[in-house]
Amino acid sequence: MALGLVHRAIQFGALFAIASCSLAPDKGSEDGPRARKVNVDRPGLPVSTLSSDELDRFQRGDALFEATIRDSDGLGPLYVRDACSACHAGDGRGPGLVTKVVPLDAGTTLSAALLPFGPTERPYTSAGAKIPLLAPRDASVRVVSRFPPAVFGRGYLEAIADAEIERLAELAERRQGSARGRLNRLKDGRIGRFGIKARLATLREFAAEALNGDMGVTSPLRPEEPAGPEGLSDDDKPGIDFTLEQVELLGEYVRSLQIPERRANDAQGQALFESALCAQCHVPSFTTTADFPLKSLAGVKAEVYTDLLLHDMGPALADGVNEDGAGPREFRTAPLIGLRFLPRLLHDGRAKSVEAAILAHGEADSEARDSVASFRALAPAQRSALIEFVERL
Hints:
Blueprint: H1 3-19, H2 52-66, E1 78-79, H3 84-87, E2 98-103, E3 124-125, E4 141-146, H4 154-158, H5 162-174, E5 184-185, E6 191-192, H6 203-215, H7 244-255, H8 267-275, E7 286-287, E8 301-302, E9 310-312, E10 330-332, H9 354-360, H10 369-377, H11 380-391
Antiparallel strand pairs: 1-3, 2-4, 5-6, 7-8, 9-10
């Protein structure tokens, strides 16, 4: 890391330590779990039982997450945003977003000649680059938006055993009704669980991919700069920009973020959520694997409201992107973690309310159509109760 980024990260880490002094563990063993219960009814706080060493790494990762990456740190030459927090303010989604270029006709495939540098727009330049990567002016393409996922609570997703995801995929295959679902088995045999199309298996890879794809920052996991029209293969920091340790710190930071505490949920809302078949795909909870490396998340109840499977959501929600085994109409079930902190819903942010998001699932070819039909059949008071339940998650 460049010295300037080190200094900025240390300054932010110091501020974090001051701001969160009330979260410090009670005196005891140096690396023992923090015993005191804390209120986490907001995003961005660490799991309350981290050891002292884990909390220190969390703070260092948080500093990197908030830091603005500069040319001298390895930004660009082409990039989308210059800080993790620029796309995940408050560890949520937005204000930054990613735009993709896709065929106007969902049944066609864009030629490599039309998109020689891939489908992602990178509108900003640095390190001497002059030409941003923008959508071609062609009548056969359209530009679609992707809002970034929130990052709080994602360690719980990583801690779910593969066997649990495989079990849900088998149940989905035998299920009656419209909802099916399949896991995204990656080329190396692992199960994808991160990204809107479940194309990444771990949070370390999630961090490395975001650094490279969104900021043009290379690391040992992603050593090549994204291609661009000027053929630039490096930036103002020669060679690898971020060390593996820095990528690990970012991954550990995200892994250690707590699920914001749920507001009081009523039994009626939960029952309606299940009777409307929402829980078929938005599976309320799992017990995490007992041998997960972060002990605070090992063998605990993870209330994540997802099955981590891909579902065909029909042409109305399709984004036109084929991505690492997932088709243009397929999306991983969005975890309903801290949903009340998210300004917009669905992969492209088109829904401004829970009700709008539910109804958008109901097109004729969507796997969620049976669930939406059940929702529509509820009495108005019941629909309101179900919506209120989801809004409190």
